[in-house]
Design brief:
Blueprint lengths: L18 H4 L3 H52 L8 E5 L8 E8 L6 E8 L8 E8 L1
Antiparallel strand pairs: 1-2, 2-3, 3-4
Length: 137
């Protein structure tokens, strides 16, 4: 009887498993999670900033439309006011957040008066107001 020896050789390995079979290490997973979390936090803060900018733009647009409406009322009223005179008020519902101010000023032409309509919300010193000018005969 002969006993045959059968040997198997592993080509190119020395008893260790190769890197492609191991998967990701804990450190690699933690670094990937840190990168993803930083990106998500940046996107969330960008979304919040976008919402606040959109709200401000809506207020500016609404104030501009209200100022144009008040100016049209003033121009069609046709009453002459003295320079330096000021009128103030608050808009009716649903625009009661906004307040208006009319200012009258002289011009070099005696029959022409400059009218300034200012519509404000919040604090005027924080640039939360819209002003438009027109000339009335």
């Amino acid at each position: 009887m002969s006993v045959g020896l059968h040997t198997t050789r592993q080509h190119g390995t020395t008893g260790r498993t190769s890197r492609c079979n191991r998967g990701f290490s804990l450190l690699e997973v933690m670094i990937a999670l840190a990168i993803v979390s930083i990106a998500l936090v940046s996107l969330l803060s960008l979304g919040n900033r976008s919402i606040s900018v959109h709200d401000r733009l809506q207020r500016i647009t609404q104030a501009t439309l209200l100022a144009q409406h008040k100016m049209a009322e003033t121009e069609t009223a046709g009453t002459s006011k003295q320079a330096g005179q000021e009128m103030t008020g608050i808009f009716d519902e649903p625009f009661d957040l906004y307040r208006w101010r009319l200012d009258y000023a002289d011009t070099p032409l005696p029959s022409v008066t400059m009218v300034t309509v200012t519509v404000a919300w919040g604090d005027e010193e924080n640039n939360e107001a819209v002003s438009i000018d027109s000339f009335v005969f």
